[in-house]
Design brief:
Residues 19-51 have a biased composition (Low complexity). Residues 1-51 are annotated as: Disordered. By secondary structure, the chain is an alpha+beta fold. Helix content is 27%, strand content 24%. The chain has 14 helices and 19 strands. The chain has helices at residues 30-34, 73-79, 115-125, 137-141, 209-221, 250-257, 268-280, 307-318, 336-345, 356-365, 367-371, 475-490, 501-509, 516-536, and strands at residues 68-70, 81-84, 87-90, 98-99, 105-109, 156-164, 172-180, 191-198, 228-234, 238-246, 288-295, 323-328, 349-352, 373-384, 389-394, 415-418, 422-431, 438-447, 455-462. It has a 6-stranded mixed sheet, sandwiched between helices. Helix 5 (209-221) packs parallel to helix 10, helix 8 runs parallel beside helix 9 (336-345) and helix 13 (501-509) packs antiparallel against helix 14. The chain is globular.
């Protein structure tokens, strides 16, 4: 399936009116709002709040004002980024509907990144709608855990489900859910971690370097006795702060971390190469060797300033098995586009940490999955039956698009799945009037962590997978649809025009199940609705 131009110029942000609340911080009952909420419409962006930082104690103030500033043609060609309010985001055009008779294959790579959701959450908590380019549907959906049955053998299981859309009576939502095998902390391979910390002047605020240091301490606390930690920093120059040290030597590691201070320029490219040189020394089949970059992504001096140049300089190390985690911090000059692209090309994950709560989620709760890859170059291909499905669109994954012909080309890079990770993809489809039993075939192709040849599995999607109503669908399905729909509305996806955040909120409220992250999401929808209402009324 061919996608649209990923470097399309940015359109003005579109806001969607809703009724007003007494407080933007409190979620409004979905039932009371859904009827009053009109369709999405264009409006001027809300007046931005002043610039500021996030204190470790939890107090927040708004980020830098949102301004749309296109980069030069050369820069745009290199990293597809635009700057909004000083933060740089990659520009992707949302997937449009495809007529099945013309193209019945949809092919994309797995993605378990979550940075987009936690960054959008910070915008909303600070009283602003996130920029449309900051919203990636798949990273919203995959932020949450789903209760998929884990595999009894093999790397993962696949779960298919569908139900009628609550937004458009002519359409159905279809979910492809993958659950990776669970590996306990005691079972995972020994890990050699090289923490690459940005100590440039731009990292001085409390929500950047201090939070990054505390994040590493959380990670160290949750490592095993056979794990080692090294520490490299970069600012105007690169510095080896700590040689490979047993994770059990907490006092020595903490002492090294506590010496870090911010100041100087940002030679990120040089820092990357130094960290990879350390990591490759420990790379082996039975060891996890990973570089963990903690930065705001601002690279302004030295060689290799673009993602393409950085990865080209360390590609030989990547091919030897060193993986990469990028962890973003801060607002005002955050380079989301750089962080996302580095993680993609570095066979790893991208996160955004806005609080100690998120640091614990990434480096404590999700640490094993973050470190241990259970399947690499994971590709999805959904072959829709033209006799059953007239049109379809994949919600998100625009930056994970793969040419259909490359699905079985094992030299083509794709995504990785870590231990215990779930990957969820949602399609919006329109069925034909006399749809047969077989709707589609879902194929997944993946390599073992150290393998070179991929294995392929196929799973039929039939009418038996479709529930008669959204209410009859599983709570995980309903919640995933709510999250994907909310993301599509926030990013002004043309296919979501006319959709109501009130409907999405009601759907989520009925699928919370006592989960704290889901409860927070319901509250965020309420905040988004209040902000859209204020924007539409000119306040």
């Amino acid at each position: 399936m061919k996608r649209g131009d990923t470097t399309a110029a940015s359109a003005p942000a579109r806001e969607y009116a809703a009724d007003e609340f007494a407080s933007a911080g409190a979620p409004a009952p979905a039932e009371a709002l859904a009827a009053a909420e009109p369709q999405m419409r264009r409006a001027s962006p809300a007046k931005p709040a002043p610039s500021g930082a996030l204190a470790l104690g939890g107090a927040v103030v708004a980020p830098a004002p949102t301004q749309l500033m296109e980069k030069s043609k050369k820069e745009l060609t290199d990293d597809k980024g635009i700057s909004e309010g000083g933060n740089t985001f990659e520009v992707y055009k949302p997937n449009a509907f495809t007529e099945t008779a013309k193209d019945n294959l949809s092919t994309f790579a797995a993605d378990v990144d979550t940075a987009s959701y936690s960054m959008a959450r910070r915008y909303l908590q600070q009283g602003q709608l996130p920029p449309t380019h900051a919203v990636r549907v798949e990273e919203f959906v995959n932020y949450f855990k789903y209760r998929y049955t884990p595999p009894e053998e093999g790397a993962f299981t696949v779960h298919l489900e569908g139900a009628p859309s609550p937004f458009n009576a002519r359409r159905q939502f279809v979910r492809v859910g993958v659950q990776g095998k669970v590996v306990s902390r005691s079972q995972r391979k020994p890990a050699h971690l090289v923490f690459l910390v940005d100590t440039s002047g731009s990292m001085a605020s409390s929500d950047k370097l201090p939070l990054a240091i505390e994040s590493i301490k959380v990670a160290v606390k949750n490592l095993n006795e056979n794990d080692t930690v090294a520490l490299v920093t970069y600012a105007g120059s690169t510095r080896d702060v700590l040689p490979p040290t047993p994770a059990t030597d907490v006092k020595k590691i903490h002492a090294a971390l506590d010496t870090l201070v911010a100041g100087g320029g940002t030679a990120m490219g040089s820092g990357m190469e130094a960290a990879y040189k350390h990591a490759v020394k420990k790379a082996a089949a039975g060891v996890v060797s990973r570089v963990v970059v903690l930065t705001d992504g601002d690279a302004n001096i030295g060689p290799n300033l673009s993602p393409k140049a950085m990865l080209a300089s360390v590609q030989k190390y990547v091919s030897e098995g060193v993986t990469l985690t990028t962890v973003g911090f801060g607002m005002g000059n955050y380079h989301d586009s750089l962080m996302e692209q580095l993680a993609d090309k570095g066979n790893g994950n991208s996160f955004y940490v806005d609080s100690m709560k998120e640091a614990r989620k990434v480096f404590e709760t999700q640490l094993t999955g973050t470190l241990e890859v259970i399947a690499k170059d994971v590709k999805f291909q959904v072959e829709f039956n033209p006799k059953a499905v007239s049109r379809y669109r994949l919600m998100g994954y625009e930056n994970r698009d793969i040419a259909d012909k490359d699905f079985r080309d094992d030299k083509v890079d794709a995504g990785e799945i870590g231990a215990g990770h779930t990957v969820t993809a949602l399609y919006e489809v329109e069925l034909t009037g006399d749809a047969p039993q077989e709707l589609a075939t879902v194929r997944i192709r993946a390599k073992a962590p150290n393998g070179t040849e991929a294995k392929e599995q196929a799973f039929p999607l039939t009418r038996a997978n479709l529930k008669p109503s959204m209410d009859a669908a599983s709570s995980d399905f309903r919640f995933a649809v709510s999250v994907a729909a909310t993301a599509d509305i926030l990013r002004a996806a043309p296919a979501a025009e006319g959709w109501s955040l009130g409907t999405a909120q009601k759907l989520a409220e009925g699928a919370v199940g006592g989960d704290a992250d889901r409860t927070e999401f319901v509250r965020l929808i309420g905040q988004a609705r209040a902000l859209m209402s204020a924007s539409a009324s000119g306040r």
